[in-house]
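Supplementary Note 3. Input sequence used for the single-chain structure prediction.
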Amino acid sequence: MQNNFTPQLVSGRTITQPAKQVKVLERFDVAVLGGGPAGVCAATAAARMGRKVILVERHGFLGGMATAAIVNIWHTMLGVDRKTPVMAGLVKEIIDTLLDSGDAYNQKEDGTGQWVIDPHASKLVFDNLVLKAGVKLLFHTWISDVLREGDRITTVLVETKSGRLAIEADQFIDCTGDADIVRRSGIQTQLGNHQHQCQPPSLCFRVDNVDTDAMSLHDAQAALFEEPMDYNGAYYPCYLWGTFMPGANDERMLAGVRVLNINAADAMDFSRSEVEGRMQLQWVMKKLRDLPGWSKARLVEIPAQIGIRESHRILAEHQVTRDEILTGHQFDDTVIQGTYPIDIHNPNGPGITFEHLDGTTHIVSGNRQNTVSRWDGQSMDAPKRDTLCWSVPFRSQIPKGLSNVLAAGRCIGAEHDSAGAIRVMVNAMQLGQSAGTAAAMATTHNTCTVQGHALREQLIAQGVPLLSVTQS
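The predicted structure, written as discrete structure tokens, is reproduced below.
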């Protein structure tokens, strides 16, 4: 749609900011930038190993997309066989805490399904986790710039209500989601796919007063796709899904809005996504109320921000590939494991593609028609593949060109397709635990001095069920 609500840059015009003195915070062993699920686990892991840690977050609470964007579904901790644990550690600790307080449930009675969490209760759990570990917190803080000497970052400059401040540390962990630390240090990154298109963001929201026998979201999406949206004349682009909120049978979180052609690391695009997202939300609510069981639906929450799937990723010592994900390749420095499929939302319109470890591809159209094929070239009646899980190596957290920086969360080193499997919450948490542990092990040395086998031993000692590896 035509954008009439964000400002335009003046072509060719710049100003020179005069030099000024910047106040410096106390020095830290490890500085974690970004307080989403990855940042929470990175800071906690490093602090539990005795390091002095600061965690910097732009919102006034922790949790990132899990809380600020209320993306409240976390995927299974089990392998494809639905029996073998392939992740635990801090992921399990956080989920268990939410279960104990009644703020989470599993979508299957036997516990083998996906986890649904209360995003606002999660804020409290994340606070308690990092504070108990001794982490120092700095909220309402934006990264402004990075100072680098050779291949080492010395200082991260941040903007606060107190003005600009400087953070000095031995090790830095980029959990910004957009590789902000790496990019601002002048190191090249990857943006989106080969055409620099990113997976579109989605605006989640909460509604209540929905009848228990209301039309399913599958059928609702097909109904919403019948005619163009009123605000821009385009067809509904979203893959509509949702969850029942813990402890509330008539309340749902709906991922019901998707905004196209967005680079969330661009200020104008990010602003447009928020405004257009709320425009689309108004149309969605109007259409939903015309459907059976939805007539009394009440909008009870629009989150602090739209949910971001993809922007910049680091160029790492190893870029995880689509083939490595789909074939379940194991590395000798594997630090996380997962089963979430490659999940690619069309950046230009309706549609979503899932590629599963069992060999199947599911392409879901705008009217929710599902076309199934095989990505492995086998016939549809061939046995499904028995891959248990995929893995990510420690090398994919080490950005090329920087010796005291690690990445965790969706901005690690992965190709566009493989990032579509790695980017979700439970995987971000695992990557955070890995990065925090590695940063603590590196102390004042280069991150590349941390040996993969030694890091794996530490993670296993922390309860992470890493599989034995025989290949590199």
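DSSP finds ten helices and 23 strands in the chain. The chain has two domains: 23-194+390-461, 202-301.
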